[in-house]
Amino acid sequence: MASNDLWIIALYLVVLVSGNDKDFLVGQRQLPYKTDELTDRHFHEIAQLSDVKHLKETVKEILIPRIVGSPGHAKVRKFIVKSLEDLGWSVNLNSFHDSVPILGNLHFHNIIAKLNPKAERYLVIACHYDSKYMGDVEFLAATDSAVPCAMMLNMAKVLQQQLEHYKNTELSLMFIFFDGEEAFKEWSPKDSIYGARHLAKKWEREEFLQKIDILMLLDLLGAPDPKFYSFFSKTESWYSRILNIEDRLSDTGMMERYVSSGVSRPQEPNRYFQPNALRSSHIEDDHIPFLRRNVPILHIIPVPFPQVWHTPDDNEDVIDYSTTENLRRIVSLFAMEYLEGITNNA
């Protein structure tokens, strides 16, 4: 991903996030969709579901150089596909060729996984799985984006039983693992987000974009103490639901604790999701081709970016698994709360 000078420093427009029922709209046509908070009992049941061992094992499978067209890229793609197929998801590849600087013509593969391939609507959670070409430098790209990929696969495994119901509902869950997010030479409209640009154009032509309620894009996750903001007014009310979920986890003592650098005792995590909106920020990422086609976006990316962004230090040493598990829980609870809203809208 790219932005002006890494992240916009000049003149953020910061406003307090708020929402009410009339603002809970979804899809290109901005139709109303009402969801309720999970009951305390159901909230606790889902929040307690965890498999950090699987999460760490999954990270290790993905944490290899995976430049488009390389053996590592193919290995990770096959691992993601098999992991989801083994859990009963319907998985397809959106494959295409494109010419890139330095490396020439490459074969790209977006991975598209659906709980119910016949659903009429989808909550989409997405990330990218390729790693940046950096010449002879080995770049493992832990936060960018091995950890988001692993979080999504871990979420599918941990919630396997709870998600079974949504294999037959008109509203279901879709995962997208975009290919070719990274630039090969220098970030530009033509040298970046290859997979997202191709898929958005294809789905616009096929009139499939109207089936997407919200696209939640995960990127640069795994480092400790991230700070997230609401970037788009269309999804501000949905962002407020994420704030509420984080507060509930914190209030009930269900946030994982971690040891800060240089501190020997466990520390409570700082707030991740900030009650503010950054209206003038402009971070270019896989969501852009969908945003331009009026698909509602929740962009879960920290500001500022991790210090290891696009450096060889973006490796397993930077990953804070307590933070990663907290974020996985928050995204899981948001997804379950969203999907269960279908009973209020029948």
From TrEMBL:
Q: Which UniProt keywords apply?
A: Acyltransferase, Disulfide bond, Metal-binding, Secreted, Signal, Transferase, Zinc
Any idea where the Peptidase M28 domain is? 110-333
Q: Report whether Acyltransferase shows up as a keyword of the record.
A: yes
Q: Enzyme group, top EC level?
A: transferase
* Gene3D superfamilies, alphabetized: Zn peptidases
Q: Write out the annotated subcellular location.
A: Secreted
Residue stretches spanning the membrane:
none
Q: Which EC number(s) does the record attach to this protein?
A: 2.3.2.5
Q: Where is the signal peptide?
A: 1-19
Gene Ontology terms: cellular component: extracellular region
Query: Which GO molecular function annotation, any one, does this entry have?
Result: zinc ion binding
What reaction(s) does this enzyme catalyze? N-terminal L-glutaminyl-[peptide] = N-terminal 5-oxo-L-prolyl-[peptide] + NH4(+)
Please report which protein family the annotation says this sequence is part of.
Belongs to the glutaminyl-peptide cyclotransferase family.
Q: What does this protein do?
A: Acts as a glutaminyl-peptide cyclotransferase. Responsible for the biosynthesis of pyroglutamyl peptides. Might be more efficient in the conversion of tri and tetrapeptides in vitro. Might have a relative preference for substrates containing hydrophobic amino acids in vitro.
Name the UniProt record assigns to this protein: Glutaminyl-peptide cyclotransferase
